[in-house]
Write a structure and sequence with these properties.
By secondary structure, the protein is α+β, with helices and mostly antiparallel strands. The protein has eleven helices and 16 strands.
Length: about 400
């Protein structure tokens, strides 16, 4: 027993010596006196390759700047005009397209989607109860969440048509139906559960009703009216290298070959939290750009300046330089709470409330994004990061929002 305790003590002493001797990342962002010093310090601390940040106060842009690199290898700077994948911020843009179709009298938000789709969507656990667009937009459709990175097409738009992808997962004749595995046990409208697959179905409704691809509808009716010149649902619309490179961060224990990325979340968290590797023990691994067959859930690419134009239009109740994005009634529909408090009091029409703001976040391989606004005060925050999120960068995003609120919004 005594020998075991001595051995354990020796191991602990060796670990302590290793911890004391290993180089560590300095932590000084919180002591930065102003926002200009805070951002690069935070990026160094949390290994963030590039950031684009825009802030609107009282409906006027007070900050619009890129930091770090859109591409690390070529040292191409990140700017406010650098487009990148915005992931799930795509969903409320899809919501605007759906509400525009509603304004044209082409879409009843509460009708059975099977009246519009070229295939049938029936939850086998719900006795054929209909699913509506409103339920898709509030994640209460009873369609389970699903996405598989194995479906992604590296470097190009997906060759798989959206309806074929959905039919394969959601209809009994589909190759991946799996006995209805992609449906919840609850009935439509009974519970909220976030669903990327449900957003894909909503996109298929938009294409069927609008009789045009979602990308074309968004370009003509959202992006062009708002002057969002760097925004598109299609990778084919961008030159090689135009989009910000997407990165994962690999961090290693100093003097060892033990490393971890976001694909090993527990090890990644422990290495970062306990040993705090410095920049010399971290590297950025690039992902390709991806095409996703379920693209309505997160396929939009846009710049911080473009998303600011969208936010300012929302703060102006849908006004654009050439008219309105939505009727007054549909604008109110978009931003009103959609669900009973017993289900979820924060859910709007694809938008969602968080910490006193309304908006949406997005995350995928190599990207982490946020767009939130306060219609009463006329404020908005856009943050685009070309790095896969983990627990540390989620905390970094929260710190960014706190510092923006204090330094730039003066709250």
């Amino acid at each position: 027993m005594r020998k075991a305790l001595i051995a354990l003590g020796a191991v602990l002493a060796a670990l302590l010596c290793y911890w004391l001797a290993s180089p560590k990342q300095s932590i000084w962002a919180e002591s930065a006196r102003d926002f200009a010093a805070f951002v690069p310090a935070l990026m160094e601390e949390e290994a963030i390759p590039g950031l684009a940040i825009a802030v609107v106060r009282n409906r006027q842009v007070v900050h619009m700047q890129g930091y770090g690199f859109a591409d690390v290898a070529s040292r191409k700077p990140m700017t406010a005009d650098t487009p990148m994948n915005i992931a799930s911020i795509s969903k409320p843009i899809l919501g605007i397209v759906l509400l525009q179709l509603h304004d044209k009298g082409l879409l009843d938000l509460d009708a059975d989607i099977n009246r519009m789709l070229p295939f049938r969507v029936n939850n086998p656990n719900a006795d054929g109860q209909p699913i509506s667009v409103r339920q898709l937009a509030t994640h209460t459709s009873s369609i389970a969440d699903f996405y598989d990175v194995a479906d992604y097409q590296p470097g190009a738009d997906s060759p798989t048509p959206l309806v074929d992808h959905l039919r394969g997962l959601l209809t009994p004749e589909g190759a991946r139906y799996d006995g209805g595995a992609h449906y919840l046990k609850t009935a439509p409208g009974a519970a909220r559960e976030y669903s990327n697959l449900g957003a894909g179905v909503a996109g298929a409704v938009a294409e069927a009703v609008g009789r045009a691809p979602l990308a074309a509808q968004a370009k003509a009716n959202v992006f062009e009216p708002l002057g969002m010149t760097n925004s598109s649902w299609l990778l084919a619309d961008y030159r090689p290298g135009q989009l910000a490179t997407r990165y994962d961060v690999v961090q290693c224990l100093p003097f060892t070959r033990l490393c971890a990325s976001t694909e090993q979340p527990k090890r990644n968290f422990l290495i970062r939290k306990v040993f705090r590797p410095a920049s010399g023990d971290r590297r950025f691994d690039a992902y390709p750009q991806f095409g996703n067959p379920n693209y309505p859930d997160g396929g939009v690419n846009a710049s911080a300046r473009d998303l600011t134009a969208l936010a300012q239009s929302i703060l102006a109740r849908g006004e654009t330089s050439s008219g309105r994005l939505l009727s007054a009634a549909s604008f109110d529909e978009m931003l009103k709470p959609q669900l009973p408090a017993s289900i979820d009091e924060r859910q709007r029409f694809f938008w969602r409330d968080r910490n006193g703001l309304t908006g949406h976040a997005g995350s995928d391989q190599g990207v982490y994004t946020s767009l939130y606004f306060d219609t009463a005060k006329g404020d908005a925050i856009v943050v685009l990061m070309n790095r896969t999120p983990d627990l540390q960068t989620e905390e970094a995003m929260a710190r960014l929002f706190d510092r923006i609120s204090r330094d730039l919004l003066r709250r």
